[in-house]
Design a protein that fits this description.
mainly alpha, 79% helix
């Protein structure tokens, strides 16, 4: 696969990832109901403690999560239109994701109320955030982004 095709493939995947995350954040904080979380618990899809954890997330965390989602999505759109804004958008998103992860795993001990597979997934998502910053920096440096 040539470099241009790889660029568009990776950009498309990052766009899908940004859209999915924005949708998840919107659903989690503005559309879902306590009944939804109770159903997930009763189906065994999440642990009861995780439903409580979600309901007790402070508003400042909800705000920075929304900012992380928006800047991630704007980063992907910037890659799509080959704009140098991709790098600052992804860097801002990574910064907020890092704060969210620190708060969740260190201060709030979310690992005690989620499954090991969810912990792993969170760190995969953090790795993708790091990759997005690196990827946009690489393409800024090589002139793909203007």
């Amino acid at each position: 696969m040539n470099k241009l095709a790889t660029y568009w493939l990776v950009t498309g995947l990052l766009l899908l990832w940004g859209c999915a995350y924005a949708g998840l954040v919107f659903f989690t904080f503005w559309l879902s109901t306590p009944d939804h979380w109770a159903t997930l618990v009763s189906e065994g899809r999440i642990l009861p403690g995780y439903a409580v954890y979600i309901s007790e997330i402070p508003s400042w965390v909800v705000l920075i999560t929304a900012i992380a989602a928006i800047t991630r999505l704007f980063g992907a759109i910037s890659l799509l239109v080959r704009s140098s804004w991709a790098l600052p958008f992804y860097a801002i998103s990574l910064g907020f994701v890092s704060v969210i992860m620190f708060r969740g795993f260190v201060l709030a001990d979310v690992a005690s109320v989620i499954r090991g597979s969810q912990v792993l997934l969170e760190f995969v998502f953090l790795s993708i955030s790091v990759f997005a910053v690196w990827y946009s920096k690489k393409h800024l440096d090589n002139g793909t982004l203007k």
